[in-house]
Amino acid sequence: MKSKSIKRMLASILMAFEAFIVFFATLAGFGLKVADGPVVWAVGLTLSFLLIATPAVLGRKGSYAFGWVLQAAIIGIGFWLVAMFYIGGVFACMYAWAMIAGGTIDKARLAFERANGGLGQTENVEVFEIEIDEK
User: Which residues, other chains included, contact 42 with Cβ-Cβ below 8 Å and sequence gap of 6+?
Assistant: First the structure.
């Protein structure tokens, strides 16, 4: 069984959650009338759709770079809805963490599997019982 990439899983979770945040920001932008209604909906729903669809292609060439483009676009929304500077900045930092930590975990797992002859986590597991004396 092939082990899944932690980097991909972290980025997927982050982008799925971020899609909801962008959708709610779209509602806020529409309510505050930061631009024409159709423009707000077109930009917001397009970004939300891209954030939901991108995890399907993560792991392919250029897909993580496309994630960075989406992060920059979300920060760019801050010119119309100032709170998105902060929210987009927080998500960009979390995306950076997902890329760094996920990549590190994937490399460590690969090194562990190579050092142990490809053993998975379920193999070579010891089972023990703890007995408690009741007085």
Answer: none
